[in-house]
């Protein structure tokens, strides 16, 4: 699997989004980008879909370590987090597993960074209190 998820059954998308951003912040991540996929699909294709956001999360010290070890690792950064509404009141938050980088970049320094990032992202995911 390339990620891990949790599901909230007692929250709106906006509430889940705010909780996710706070959980990321508590683990040292900031949100560099926030892509509103629902809006993009409506604007570009005229397609209706449920709310769906992609957050580009970055932990600057870990990103710096990774970039020092492999300058092209930026192709795999930032860590993506998806916040999507499955049904009213049911929101899924999905976190990219940083270990996916390890399989693509064969460097021990990247493994160390991925291990640290994974621990932090799993804690953030777990702190949201939803069903895993």
CATH topology: TATA-Binding Protein
How do the helices and strands follow one another from N- to C-terminus?
A: EHEHEHEEHH
Rg, Å, rounded = 15 Å
Overall residue-averaged pLDDT value:
94
CATH architecture: 2-Layer Sandwich
Helix content: 40-55%
Instruction: Tell me the distance between the termini.
Output: 14 Å
CATH superfamily: TT1751-like domain
Summarize the main sheet. Answer: 5 strands, antiparallel
Highest-level CATH class: Alpha Beta
Number-wise, the strands total 5
- What's the structural domain tally? 1
SSE map:
Layout: E1 3-8, H1 13-26, E2 30-36, H2 37-45, E3 52-58, H3 60-69, E4 79-87, E5 90-96, H4 99-104, H5 108-127
Antiparallel strand pairs: 1-5, 2-3, 3-4, 4-5
Helix pairs in contact: 1-5, 3-5
Explain how this protein is built.
The chain has one domain: TATA-Binding Protein (2-Layer Sandwich). The longest helix has 20 residues, at 108-127. A five-stranded antiparallel beta sheet has the order 1-5-4-3-2. Helix 1 crosses helix 5 (108-127) and helix 3 runs antiparallel to helix 5 (108-127). The model has no long low-confidence stretch (mean pLDDT 94). It is built from five helices and five strands; from the N terminus they run E-H-E-H-E-H-E-E-H-H. By secondary structure, it is of the alpha+beta class. A hairpin with a 2-residue loop joins strand 4 and strand 5.
């Amino acid at each position: 699997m390339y990620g891990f998820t949790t599901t909230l059954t007692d929250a709106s998308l906006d509430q889940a989004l705010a909780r996710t951003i706070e959980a990321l912040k508590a683990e040292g991540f900031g949100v560099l980008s926030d892509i509103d996929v629902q809006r993009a699909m409506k604007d570009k294709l005229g397609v209706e879909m449920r709310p769906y956001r992609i957050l580009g999360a970055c932990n600057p010290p870990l990103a710096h370590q990774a970039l020092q070890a492999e300058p092209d690792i930026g192709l795999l950064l930032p860590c993506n987090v998806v916040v999507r509404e499955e049904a009213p009141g049911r929101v899924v938050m999905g976190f990219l597993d940083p270990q996916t980088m390890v399989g693509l970049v064969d460097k021990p320094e990247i493994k160390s960074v991925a291990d640290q990032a994974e621990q932090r992202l799993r804690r953030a995911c777990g702190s949201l209190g939803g069903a895993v």
